Amino acid sequence: MFSCPAPAIKRPEPFAARIPAGRRYHSAHDPPGHKQRKRQSNSMSQVVTRFAPSPTGYLHIGGARTALFNWLFARGRGGKFLLRIEDTDRARSTPEATEAIFEGLRWLGLDWDGDAVSQFSRVERHAEVAREMLEKGAAYRCYATQEEIQAFRDEAKEKGLPPLFRSPWRDKGPEDWPDAPYTVRLKAPREGEVTVEDAVQGTVTWKADQMDDLILLRSDGTPTYMHAVVVDDHDMGVTHVIRGDDHLTNAARQSLIYRALGWDLPVFAHIPLIHGPDGAKLSKRHGALGVEAYRDMGYLPAAMRNYLARLGWAHGDDEFFTTEQATEWFTLEAVNKGAARFDFAKLENLNGQHMRASTDAALMEALDVLAAAHKIAPVEGARREMLLEAMPGLKERAKTLLELHENAYYIFADRPLQIDEKAAKNLGADAAEMLARLTPHLRNASPWTSEKTEETVRAFAETEGIKLGKVAQPLRAALTGRAVSPGVFDVMATLGRDECLARIDDVTAGHAGAA
RNA sequence: GCCCCGUUGGUCUAGCGGUUAUGACGCCGCCCUCUCAAGGCGGAGAUCGCCGGUUCGAAUCCGGUACGGGGUACCA
To answer: What whole-number distance in Å separates Cα of residue A388 and Cα of residue A363?
Structure first.
């Protein structure tokens, strides 16, 4: 795409929640034992990671980094990177958000394997597994109502006791079951310890009595997140679960489900969250921007990948690297445990470096993407040619594409130019007269190249007995309307003789010596 | 409340028992120079959260503590 080409983005089929759940998982109809064996032999050879966002809004920067880490890990090991949309919360999930997530990942260049999976489309399978657990005695029907549970918690809180609900239905049998809706709860161990071996956090241990009998299936028969993730990750053959460390405790609870089912645990890796510049956590409701916001601000995907990867992960002292290098270098062990703050200044710097490392053509394309994002027409025709020609000088001076576009004002502007304040200071009466004297020399300069115009202007400055800067600055002001621009002689070359003379004429008109 | 996790210059970080504590961003100065960038050179900025312990020796190991974060739902 840009200087650090990301693998071509596969356009997955539009998110197909309609496809019957079983179709997507060859293993869904296999007996559990078979499944497990199959995965064991498979997991040795191939890494499978996944990104599992819930479609309740745009893809925010924290989620993007989680996706990136999963992607880097899988791609660096010839593995698969899967995408699952956790849309079981029907009230908050929207197709627009799903599309925004796809769009964000595509822009970032994080391609996923196969179709995105709708978690909601798999409710049947979730229920099926819960039923299996019921039969095995690993789970039980709990008829406690939400009111009863709430009352229990209120009382526990009042007495300063742990608010863990102990269901009275845990050891009841069919003879005790009333004719009422019930939830399916995991029969979690009450003694011993639960240990999670985390690739980032290390070994983390909890006392089993800290865990409650979590609900697998709600009383309306739908699965809870805790249950659905486990079943989906297992069925999808996920070998490495890389996600935010807000899920660390969940990993312990989920490991209980894996254990009850007799399934192999994936490798867990809980990465720290990103904090805002103020140290507060960055979240959707607290300042986290969607990736498209970064696109619109003119950052390159390659720079985003570089910056995001560097946030909380390091490969020695390497700061500026390509995506290929990152995939090659990335390991879970090198991920930091502490949260990092998002720093725009550093992102900008990195973006500038990536822009400079980009080819002119690649930047032109990036500009097209930016234009499309801002819903404005792409630059075409002669101006596109000029832009391309001026690109080397432009990209050297910009930290974002937006800045580059702004600095290319002299290419897009129509005469007469808007002379800004600082430029106007370089265009007093004396300067205008001086430029008027310069005009005939420029008219005769041939060929019209930056070398020739420079030679001409330098000679002129000498005969005038002034420093080059005294000519160059007014010239720059007349030609670009600004006090800052790429080298004036390069500007002249891209603008062409006629346009240059016309612009000079615009500011010298009415002054002595005007030609 | 309880349970987990974290803490190295302003920021991101290197470090993994013995270093003048690494590099980068940002900031300041100089050079280069038609401006601005880029680039080059140099500088300021960290008693490695704090207190103990282990050790001949601790940023590195152990225990406390403070602060920050996360979790504790028929949310994900």
So the answer is: 9
- Chain centroid to CA A162: 39
Q: Higher pLDDT residue, A514 or A1?
A: A514
- Whether the pLDDT of residue A382 is over 60: the answer is yes
pLDDT higher than 50, residue A223: yes
Asked if pLDDT for residue A293 goes beyond 80, the answer is yes
| Count, residues in chain A | 515
Strand order in the sheet with A215-217: A139-142, A183-186, A215-217
Q: What is the per-residue pLDDT for A23? A: 24
Q: How far apart are the first and last CA of chain A?
A: 49
Tell me, rounded to whole angstroms, the distance of Cα A352 from its chain centroid. 18
Please state the pTM of the whole predicted model: 0.89
What is the distance in angstroms measured between the alpha-carbon CA of A202 and the sugar C1' of B64?
Answer: 22
Alpha helix stretches (DSSP H) within A143-221: 146-159
Contact A81, A71 (CB under 8 A): yes
Mean of the per-residue pLDDT values for chain A?
88
Q: What is the pLDDT of residues A23-47, one digit of tens each?
A: 222 222 222 222 322 333 344 579 9
- Residue A173: pLDDT over 70: yes
Q: In degrees rounded to 5, what are phi and psi of residue A135?
A: -65, -40
The token pair that represents A422 in the structure block: 């600082």
**Whether A252 contacts A211, CB under 8 Å:** yes
Q: Pull the structure tokens for residue A231.
A: 């079943």
Distance of alpha carbon A407 from alpha carbon A391, whole angstroms = 11
User: Which two three-digit tokens encode residue A377?
Assistant: 């027409």
Measured CA A164 to C1' B3 distance, in angstroms: 12
Taking the C-alpha atoms of residue A101 and residue A111, their distance in angstroms, rounded to an integer, is: 12
Report CA(A39)–C1'(B18) in Å, whole number: 48
Chain B positions with a protein C-beta closer than 7 Å: 1-8, 10-15, 22-26, 33-39, 68-76
Closest CA to A79 of A330, A259, A301: A330
> What is the distance between the alpha carbons of residues A479 and A83, in angstroms, rounded to a whole number?
51
CA dihedral sign, ordered A508, A384, A305, A5: negative
Strand pairing partners for A181?
none
A286: nearest nucleotide, CA–C1' criterion = B69
pLDDT of residue A286: 59
Nucleotide nearest to A472 (CA to C1'): B34
A6 pLDDT higher than 50: no
Question: Over A273-285, what HEC string results?
Answer: CEECCCCCECECC
Residue A24, pLDDT score: 26
H helix runs in A376-449, sequence order:
381-395, 401-407, 409-412, 421-425, 429-444
pLDDT in tens, A487-511: 999 999 999 999 999 999 999 987 7
- Find the mean pLDDT for residues A364-369: 98
Q: Are A6 and A109 in contact (CB under 8 A)?
A: yes
